[in-house]
């Protein structure tokens, strides 16, 4: 078999990433060697592969769903927006340029060639490649140089299924409108629909599905129910409004809840670092943008950012710097990760991301100095922290010089590897350290003691197992609620011939309220 499929969406956050992951897990369970692919991703959440390439977190998650190692070919183009309206272009895992929107547009023909090469390479090594689109395929102002949606599908002759989010409303209009705005050639590749995030009585929805088929000539291939509590690496949108705090399950009997406030920086990156905290029993994670939201927190986390200097200025303007300093003076714990760690130091010199002409004063809560280098550090390190083995990944331009305190991570001989600790303040450049179960429990226990909380971490929480359960739930979603026979035919044979063209404003072949 040498099949492929493109999962597009009527909007950002329609569910493309999770549907793609669900199809990957469904296929993998049947012994199919499957790989995910996203030609172009705009995201501030990224991951480092085993060979040191940077790709979108969603593609790493989808690779896990497929049971294969993530690699650069799965996300050949990654765009990382910065503070000045420009984006860093990551090509095949390496940063190659900083561009504005119009500059990037001029690069797209070459990038499409690279994306098609990567797709062809994956198809030569895997039975099936499940591709994910970006945004909407009906962005008609961008179609002439599209490399992620119909531009890719047309060049590679991929069958396309379109996901619509019924929970936000207007799903039938968005699906019909998406199809109607496409050219005849693009329409010929759109083979069906997925309705996502449905809640309610399916009998009420059924007439609408039949009418949609009559209006478009394409069937609804599945209606997926809302999955409460889904938290897997959604990252293809810069709008983080959907990133909500999640209270985890209750902790041991008699234990107190540990309250964690995560500062929601404007250019927040790798917010998945706090997912492991939110899965820990008895831990309540919430986002904070105001001083009063830090007041009763037992632990404050400063996460990563794509724009350290700009977000540090935002933090000060919001009045958050003083409460952080007061917490430290009172012995209450603060954890900084990557960009958040850089903010905690004494001084930042950044002529790379912020183009600042001189040093910028940090928060002064750690004895460190940061100098940004032109080369991005990408690594998958391992070491020891609080007596426990830890693994993580590094993605940063800022190089931290530690001038006091204790190391956060050491090697087996106790030599410093990364980070700094001074009293209740911790900092590390390593993303993903909190996914290490034993270390996370040890860190939370120490943070709880410093905060005076009688919090006892659960002894058997496995973050990796929790992620696998989420991926299994997505595989179940596809197996139980999709027309899998029709999916197989699309993957093996492509879009069926003779699909009707639907011009904009075409009269409906079905009268409202009828379903023949």
Automatic annotation (TrEMBL):
Superkingdom per UniProt: Bacteria
Pathway, per record: Cofactor biosynthesis; adenosylcobalamin biosynthesis
CDD domains xref list: CobQ_N (cd05389), GATase1_CobQ (cd01750)
Keyword annotations: Cobalamin biosynthesis, Glutamine amidotransferase, Ligase
A molecular function (GO) term: ligase activity
Residues in CobB/CobQ-like glutamine amidotransferase domain copies: 259-438
Example GO BP: cobalamin biosynthetic process
Domain CobQ/CobB/MinD/ParA nucleotide binding: 6-226
Active site (record annotation): 338, 431
Keyword Metal-binding appears in the UniProt entry: no
Functional description taken from the UniProt entry: Catalyzes amidations at positions B, D, E, and G on adenosylcobyrinic A,C-diamide. NH(2) groups are provided by glutamine, and one molecule of ATP is hydrogenolyzed for each amidation.
Family: Belongs to the CobB/CobQ family. CobQ subfamily.
Matches recorded under PANTHER family: COBYRIC ACID SYNTHASE, DETHIOBIOTIN SYNTHETASE
Protein's name in the database: Cobyric acid synthase
Lineage summary: Bacteria, Bacillati, Actinomycetota, Actinomycetes, Kitasatosporales
Gene: cobQ
């Amino acid at each position: 078999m040498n099949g492929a499929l493109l999962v597009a969406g009527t909007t950002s956050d329609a569910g493309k990433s999770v549907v793609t992951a669900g199809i990957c897990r469904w296929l993998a369970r049947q012994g199919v060697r499957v790989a995910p692919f996203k030609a172009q991703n705009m995201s501030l959440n990224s991951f480092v592969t085993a060979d040191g390439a940077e790709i979108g977190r969603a593609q790493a998650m989808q690779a896990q769903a497929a049971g294969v190692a993530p690699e650069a070919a799965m996300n050949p183009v990654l765009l990382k927006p910065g503070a000045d309206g420009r984006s860093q272009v990551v090509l095949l895992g390496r940063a190659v340029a900083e561009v504005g929107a119009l500059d990037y547009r001029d690069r797209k023909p070459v990038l499409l060639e690279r994306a098609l090469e990567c797709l062809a390479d994956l198809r030569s090594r895997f039975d099936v490649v499940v591709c994910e689109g970006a945004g909407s395929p009906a962005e008609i102002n961008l179609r002439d140089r599209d490399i992620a949606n119909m531009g890719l599908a047309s060049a590679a002759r991929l069958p396309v299924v379109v996901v619509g989010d019924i929970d936000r409303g207007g799903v039938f209009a968005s699906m019909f409108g998406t199809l109607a705005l496409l050219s005849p050639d693009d329409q010929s590749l759109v083979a069906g629909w997925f309705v996502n995030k449905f809640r309610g009585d399916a009998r009420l929805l059924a007439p609408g599905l039949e009418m949609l088929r009559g209006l478009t000539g394409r069937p609804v291939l599945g209606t997926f129910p809302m999955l409460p509590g889904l938290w897997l690496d959604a990252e293809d949108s810069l709008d983080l409004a959907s990133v909500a705090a999640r209270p985890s399950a209750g902790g041991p009997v008699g234990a107190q809840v540990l309250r964690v406030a995560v500062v929601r920086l404007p250019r927040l990156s790798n917010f998945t670092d706090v997912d492991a905290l939110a899965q820990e029993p008895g831990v309540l994670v919430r986002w904070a943008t105001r001083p009063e939201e830090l007041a009763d927190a037992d632990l404050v986390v400063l996460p990563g950012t794509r724009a350290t200097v700009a977000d540090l200025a935002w933090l000060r303007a919001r009045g958050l710097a003083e409460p952080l300093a007061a917490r430290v003076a009172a012995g209450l714990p603060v954890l900084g990760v990557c960009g958040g760690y850089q903010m905690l130091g004494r001084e930042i010199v950044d002529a790379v991301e912020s183009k600042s002409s001189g040093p910028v004063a940090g928060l002064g809560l750690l004895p460190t100095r940061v100098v940004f280098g032109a080369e991005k550090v990408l690594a998958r390190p391992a070491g020891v922290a609080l007596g426990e083995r830890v693994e993580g990944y590094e993605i940063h331009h800022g190089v931290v010089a530690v001038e006091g305190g204790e190391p956060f991570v050491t090697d087996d001989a106790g030599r410093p590897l990364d980070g700094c600790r001074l009293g209740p303040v911790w900092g590390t450049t390593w993303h993903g350290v909190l996914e290490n179960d034993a270390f996370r429990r040890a860190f939370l226990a120490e943070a709880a003691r410093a905060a005076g909380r009688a919090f006892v971490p659960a002894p058997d929480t496995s973050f990796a197992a929790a992620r696998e359960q989420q991926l299994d739930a997505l595989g179940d979603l596809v197996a139980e609620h999709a027309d899998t026979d029709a999916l197989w035919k699309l993957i093996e044979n492509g879009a069926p011939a003779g699909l009707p063209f639907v011009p904009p404003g075409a009269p409906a072949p079905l009268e409202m309220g009828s379903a023949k």
